[in-house]
Amino acid sequence: MSAFFLFPGQGSQRPGMGKDFYDASPEARAIFDAAAAQSPDGFLDLIFSGSQEDLNDTRVAQPALLTVEVAIVKYIESRGVRPSGCAGHSLGEIPALVAAGAVAFEDALRFTRERARLMSENVPAGGMAAVMGLDAEAIAAALPTGAQIANYNGDSQTIISGSADALAAAETALKTAGAKRVIPLKVSGPFHSEFMHPAAEEFAKILATIPFQAPSIGFISSVTATEVSDPEEIRALLSRQLCSPVRWTQTSQAIGEVPAWEIGPAAVLKGLAKRIPGGPEVLAVGTLEETTAALA
Question: Which of 25, 39, 90, 239 is catalytic?
Fold first, then answer.
């Protein structure tokens, strides 16, 4: 049995996520315990018992998702299954790199906390919005200065990012161009845009202190939609990701029409896959029940 592993990013967090793996799997529990050992008191309580509002805090969501997604991988591996390759959407690239053997979980957790801090403190004013019913090329042509595409999620959904004024102007321009809906997202800044360059530069300094090695299986970057194996390039792309669009449509098509499992608490990437021709067929394995069924 083999499948390409896909890892969702921030926004997929759910209350109680991973508790079933913690209770049932010594291998998964070891990851949770390792995370707890280098986290503030109450970290596991936030994951297992915290509210959605608690988990939506970037400084909680990012390390929590990394921990849960790696724990699921460890459970799957304990059943004798290894991924054929890995890719992740934004934050999801970090657990993908752990699963691919490019970085140790403890090191990944350390720099993920720094990533979350940089995306929470001193963030430029601005936001993001989902654009529905207009293709990316038409969106790019209609965007005013100060707004840009942040996520290519398929022809029916594209995320834009920018200053508050630019996003307001973009909504009018995009609806004039034929967009069905422009939906503001509940985020704290203009992520995956040029406004995040200062954060990306700081993150690069942090990543320079982290040991990376070449992945033992294929890893496809969602910044370039190409396979990457050089540790220095991996570092560069992880920092560049903060101020660059997530090319999920292109990444999915680079993976191709192969079986894939979404390793995460919500079937976000499975939903996107239905709208991306030429990409993988995705099975969600975010609960112990789903994962056990997939392994049967």
Answer: 90
Catalytic residue among 89, 192, 239, 244: 192
- Same fold across 4-121+194-295 and 127-184: no
Closest of 78, 96, 88, 92 to residue 295, by C-alpha: 78
CA–CA gap between residue 28 and residue 19 (Å, rounded): 10
* Closest C-alpha among 108, 124, 259, 195 to residue 100: 108
Element (H, E) at 130: strand 127-132
Average pLDDT over residues 25-51: 97
250 with 102: CB under 8 angstroms? no
Enumerate the domain spans of the chain: 4-121+194-295, 127-184
Are 109 and 38 in contact, with CB atoms under 8 Å apart?
A: yes
Strand duo 147-152 + 127-132: pairing: unpaired
The whole-number pLDDT of residue 124 equals: 86
**Cα–Cα distance between 47 and 16 in angstroms, integer?**
6
Domain 4-121+194-295 indexed as CATH 3.40.366.10 = yes
Q: What is the pLDDT of residues 14-23, one digit of tens each?
A: 999 999 999 9
Is 90 one of the annotated active-site residues of the chain? yes
Residue 192 among the catalytic residues: yes
Q: What's the topology of domain 127-184?
A: Alpha-Beta Plaits (3.30.70)
Cα–chain center distance at 136:
20
CA distance 257 to 103: 27
Check pLDDT > 90 for residue 242. Answer: yes
Distance CA 136, CA 150 (A): 11
Distances (CA, A) of 155 to 13, 50, 132, 136, 275: 25, 35, 8, 7, 7
String of b and e for 127-139 (b: at least 16 CB within 10 Å)?
A: bbbbbeebebeeb
